[in-house]
Amino acid sequence: MNTHQPLVTLVGAGPGDPDLLTLKAVKALQAASVVLVDDLVHPDVLAHAPASARIIHVGKRGGCQSTPQAFIEKLMVQEALAGETVVRLKGGDPLIFGRGGEEKAHLEAQGIAVRVVNGLTAGLAAAHDLGAALTHRAHAHGVVMVTGHASGAGPLPPVDWPQLAQTAHDCKLTLVVYMGVQSAAALEMGLLQGLPPDTPVAVVEHASQPRQRHALGQLQGLQKLLADEQLGSPAIIII
Q1: 200-205: strand order across its sheet
Q2: Can you tell me the distance from the alpha carbon of 104 to that of 165, in angstroms, rounded to the nearest whole number?
Q3: 179 catalytic, yes or no?
Q4: Going by DSSP bridges, is the β-strand pair 54-57/200-205 parallel, antiparallel, or unpaired?
Q5: Given 17, 90, 93, 179, which residue is catalytic?
Q6: DSSP class per residue in 73-88
Q7: Which residues, other chains included, contact 222 with Cβ-Cβ below 8 Å and sequence gap of 6+?
Q8: Strand, coil or helix: what is 226?
């Protein structure tokens, strides 16, 4: 009889480059018997899982057909209660736009212990790819990471872009926008109500990967920049 409390480990796979995986993430994968993996995880990361491990692809990508979150949570509970060593493998960091908080709460409510292994989030990798600093003593006192995907359909209201722009301007903050390509029109229009039109903007697609592309421009013209350079998701917008 198994007397150990069921456990699920939420593991951050980093932004894409498998070399950016942490040692702690590698150890968690090596011990896994079941791995539930997101679409944005590089396939080479799975090489660290045992050959005997069951790999279950549960795609989650903005703007695309995705595995329902309720189904993923039900599957994690089912496998953990069956005595499996479960790893939930996510792109970036589980607790930064990775629904890790939701999954942790759901699992714990079912009596399942949760361990979180941090991963390098895509916003940091995107800035690194540009050779840019998100903070700088002469230019930026801090960073705001925000989703451009918030529609207001959930419990939170949509992002107030004009207010955020004014705060960024007054407090000298860098904005790092995740999942913002589809809402670029609203983002540009809203941010222009608080930031100068010539505010520098960078868009980084597939950060840290060999297929990484980027484009530089100004806030006024963000939509045009995306269209001209044919940049799409997954991408990070840095303002």
Answers
A1: 142-147, 173-178, 235-238, 200-205, 213-218
A2: 32
A3: yes
A4: unpaired
A5: 179
A6: HHHHHHHHHTT--EEE
A7: 184, 187, 188, 201, 203, 237
A8: helix
Task: Give the ranges where 93-203 is alpha helix by DSSP (H).
Answer: 100-109, 122-130, 161-171, 184-191
Lowest mean pLDDT among 66-70, 94-98, 189-193: 66-70
pTM tops 0.90, yes or no: yes
**The token pair that represents 147 in the structure block:** 């989703």
Closest CA to 236 of 137, 122, 120, 160: 122
Looking at 17, 60, 104, 129, which residue is catalytic? 60
Is 145 labeled as catalytic in the residue annotation?
A: no
List, as own/partner pairs, every contact residues 226-232 make where C-beta atoms lie below 8 angstroms and the sequence separation is at least 24, other chains included: 226/181, 226/184, 229/203, 231/181, 231/203, 231/205, 232/181, 232/205
204-224 confidence digits (pLDDT tens):
999 999 999 999 999 999 999
**29, amino acid identity:** L
